[in-house]
Amino acid sequence: MNQKPETRNRKPSVVVICGPTGIGKTSAGIEAAETFGGEIISADSMQVYKYMDIGTAKPTHEERERIFHHMIDIIEPDEDFSAAKFALSADEIIERLRTRGIIPFLVGGTGLYIKALVHGLFHPGTSLADTRNRLKYEAETHGTESLYKRLLKSDREAADKIHPNDTFRIIRALEVYETTGMTISEHHKKHAFSGSRFNVLKIGLTTEREDLYKRIEKRVDLMVEAGFAEEVKRLLDMNYPAGLKSMQSIGYRHMIEYVTGRIPLDETVRILKQDTRRFAKRQMTWFNADPEIIWIKPDQGNDIKMLVGSFLKATRNVTIRPPIYTDERR
């Protein structure tokens, strides 16, 4: 990036801490934010939902007491949310923090949310409502599986990243292909990582695959011990249907199978661990495509702080104050 300093420094500065599920992003983000008087914006597509705490591995009450977290518990499980909505909300938060000299730390594993905020989303053209409605009708009439099979033929790359039950994303991918003649994967590649709206430091947490898998398995066991099944049962009792997009996410769809008596607990846990490992692999594939990410081991907290300190000094963010939590500031 060969920007002139005066041009570069007109942009707000943002620190991104990303990586696969279970690797320790929350702890690393809190440590760094504490050191530099920052606040955390959660870049997690599931932590936006209320009542979904255990399965989304939300920061604990104590952790949120240490550092203020934005974009957590902001919508009901049956409300729609998207990368575009996330980017708009996070952008407003960053501007508020910037005016008060507070550094935003964008922490999470939803790569599309991070990309939407930092680089913006691609625009494949005007969506045809008739196409979308037709695809929705086909899903309702013939089932999502038939649309997924069609997506496998038209855009195998996208299909490999989308769960076969994720009707919303399947329809979106087919809609883009049928209205533009170009697959959604091609649109993503054409738009990928082009330009940045902020001064950004991207830190990715990484470790050996065996270590990551052990972390994931331990996390799943801890979730079950903490009452994950009871959380899912409570959501069903609150009349949130099992077919909701939020309820079909990883972990929740697995526990629904258990609490409704379809699968025993030991088999549920085995499948959940397996699918979470696969999910982490997909996350790493996404993040590895971004050349701007600096990879750090999760236990190298001092290296993370050194990188952040150098970055903030280079972008002339000299007004770094500890956060003062007031109602007015929120």
Characteristics of this structure?
330 residues; alpha/beta; Rossmann fold; Histone, subunit A; 2 domains; six-stranded parallel beta sheet; 15 helices; 52% helix; globular; disordered N terminus; disordered C terminus
Describe, in plain words, how this protein is organized in 3D.
The radius of gyration is 20 Å and the shape is globular. The protein is of the alpha/beta class and 330 residues long. The chain has helices at 5-8, 25-35, 61-66, 83-99, 111-119, 129-142, 144-154, 156-161, 167-180, 184-191, 209-225, 228-237, 252-259, 265-288, 301-314, and strands spanning 13-18, 39-42, 69-70, 104-107, 199-205, 293-296. The relative contact order is 0.17. It has 15 helices and six strands. A six-stranded parallel sheet has the order 3-2-4-1-5-6, sandwiched between helices. The protein has two domains: 5-120 and 197-314, Rossmann fold (3-Layer(aba) Sandwich), CATH 3.40.50.300; 129-189, Histone, subunit A, CATH 1.10.20.
User: The CATH topology of the largest domain is what?
Assistant: Rossmann fold
- The Rg value, from CA coordinates, equals 20 Å
Distance between the termini: 34 Å
Q: Could you report the average pLDDT, rounded to the nearest whole number?
A: 88
How many strands appear in the DSSP assignment?
A: 6
Structural class, from secondary structure content? alpha/beta
What count of domains describes the coordinates? Answer: 2
CATH architecture of the largest domain: 3-Layer(aba) Sandwich
CATH class of the largest domain: Alpha Beta
Strand content: 5-15%
SSE run: HEHEHEHEHHHHHHEHHHHEH
Q: What would you give as the CATH superfamily of the largest domain?
A: P-loop containing nucleotide triphosphate hydrolases
Unreliable residue runs: 1-8, 318-330
Name the strands of the widest sheet in spatial order: 3-2-4-1-5-6
Biggest beta sheet attributes: 6 strands, parallel
User: Can you tell me the overall shape?
Assistant: globular
| Helix content percent band | 40-55%
Report the total helices.
15
